[in-house]
Amino acid sequence: MIPNDAPFHCEDIQVSIADKEVVKGVSLTIRGGEIHALMGPNGSGKSTFANALMGHPSYTLTGGKVYIRGKDVTDSSPEERSRRGMFLAFQYPLAIPGVTVANFLRAAVKSHAADETEMKGFRKTLLANFERLEIDPAFATRYVNDGFSGGEKKRLEILQMLMLKPAIALLDETDSGLDIDALQIVSKGINYMMGPDTGALLVTHYQRILNFVKPDFVHVFMDGRIVRSGGPELAHELEEKGYEWIENEVKAAVEAG
After folding, report:
1. Is residue 245 within 8 Å of residue 222, measured between CB atoms?
2. Which regions of the chain does DSSP assign to beta strands (E)?
3. Predicted confidence (pLDDT) per residue in 178-229, tens digit
4. Which CATH number is associated with domain 8-92+166-255?
5. How far is it between the farthest Cα atoms of the chain?
6. Please, are residues 172 and 50 in contact by the beta-carbon 8 Å criterion?
7. Could you report the per-residue pLDDT of 107-118, keeping only the tens digit for each?
8. C-alpha distances in Å from residue 106, one per residue of 8, 18, 110
9. What are the domain boundaries of the chain?
10. Nearest one of 24, 225, 208, 226 to 217, comparing CA atoms
């Protein structure tokens, strides 16, 4: 049964890259107000899963269904998924020389607005989010990610998220390359976004960001599958022990049939 009240639900997602199966049947429901952390070793398929959910053309969805607020978006374009309420923060945001941050954000918000009246508070909201993320307002005149530091790129990703107010945010290693000050600011933005109608999937390798963004559920991703789920304590256990103990458990279970 499809949970119509959930910002996000997927069933038996299978994804291939160049005919190689990378994600091998993943189902997940994220309800309003929930933060789910997806952890796992390099190469396990976490980022592939997140990008495929957003409809990235480099990833082929070979099976399964994707729902946003109960609406089947499996065959929808990335633009339509975004308008429906899905947001993906990239691990490696691209530069767009010649396009200012202000113009980029205005175009993005306008493409999501039902009518022109929703644009009336754009400047006020933008300035408030600049302050929230401790961004100099002069940032608005810079070209998108052109010459940005790693921390500036990640702040811009979170700024986009706050301006678009998604139902479900897919955050692909948003903590990578951040010093502790930037990490706290980015985490503040994520926490501010959360509400009863919003969910988040936080893809990460480390416990570090989870000290600031408290997950309701932690999932361990290995070989294209979720192999273990638990509460926040699971992330602490992974930080202490690494992934080998779970790999050994999974291997033993497979061998036992």
Report:
1. no
2. 8-17, 20-30, 35-39, 60-68, 71-72, 86-89, 96-100, 143-144, 168-172, 199-204, 217-222, 225-230
3. 999 999 999 999 999 999 999 999 999 888 999 999 999 999 999 999 999 9
4. 3.40.50.300
5. 62
6. yes
7. 999 999 877 777
8. 26, 36, 6
9. 8-92+166-255
10. 226
